[in-house]
């Protein structure tokens, strides 16, 4: 499995394209917020000869969903989220303009992801792990074979997701990290929703929020 990330929009949100030798791919958290960013994503997919087969959100805060409609319309794929984040997604139009995105177009999900479910594309299988706290319906996607997690805004390099937004809960987030992520092997690489990647082992040792 190959992982390509794009830091999009003013929040520097990491949009991920995952693909394998079959050329099938999934797009996770498309944050493209303007025509230039949409073109960057589309050009990569075309250059690599990829076929987009799934559209996934780790969670539905505005910076992670700005490109949902573009991806759904361009590639004809339904949006998939955890049901507990539907209210978070539905709230985005109420504040998008205030955040500087007056042209935001809502894309609603057609499928709900569940804890323990396997997301498949090509020859690749991702495990859905439920990790609430930053958002009530937050999930991460774990690829056991390559020891990679697409982690959204749960765990960052030397930091954790904020919990002061609606639906956030600090104690729940800490529990999610310790019981869901920290039970994975230390060698697993975490690809977060913002900033550089890290590993489970590094964060166990050095994350000041989790010592």
From TrEMBL:
A GO term for molecular function: metal ion binding
Known cofactor(s): Zn(2+)
Keywords: Hydrolase, Metal-binding, Zinc
Region (Disordered): 192-211
Database matches in InterPro entries: MBL_Glyoxalase_II (IPR051453), Metallo-B-lactamas (IPR001279), RibonucZ/Hydroxyglut_hydro (IPR036866)
Superkingdom assignment: Bacteria
Biased composition (Basic and acidic residues): 201-211
Domain Metallo-beta-lactamase: 12-194
Cited PANTHER family: HYDROXYACYLGLUTATHIONE HYDROLASE GLOC
Name of the protein described by the UniProt record: MBL fold metallo-hydrolase
């Amino acid at each position: 499995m190959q992982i390509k990330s794009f830091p999009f929009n003013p929040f520097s949100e990491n949009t991920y394209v995952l693909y394998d030798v079959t050329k099938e791919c999934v797009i996770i958290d498309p944050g493209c917020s303007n025509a230039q960013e949409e073109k960057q994503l589309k050009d990569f997919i075309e250059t690599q000869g990829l076929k987009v087969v799934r559209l996934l959100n780790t969670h539905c805060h505005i910076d992670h969903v700005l490109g949902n409609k573009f991806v759904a319309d361009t590639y004809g794929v339904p949006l998939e989220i955890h049901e507990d984040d539907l209210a978070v997604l539905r709230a985005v139009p109420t504040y998008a303009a205030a955040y500087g995105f007056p042209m935001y177009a809502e894309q609603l999900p057609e499928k709900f992801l569940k804890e323990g479910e396997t997301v498949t594309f090509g020859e690749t299988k991702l495990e859905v792990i439920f990790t609430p706290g930053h958002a009530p319906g937050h999930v991460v996607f774990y690829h056991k074979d390559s020891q990679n997690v697409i982690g959204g805004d749960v765990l960052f390099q030397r930091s954790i997701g904020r919990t002061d937004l609606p639906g956030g809960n600090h104690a729940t987030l800490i529990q999610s990290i310790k019981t869901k992520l920290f039970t994975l092997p230390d060698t697993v690489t975490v690809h977060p929703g913002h900033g550089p990647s890290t590993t489970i082992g590094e964060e166990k040792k050095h994350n000041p929020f989790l010592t």
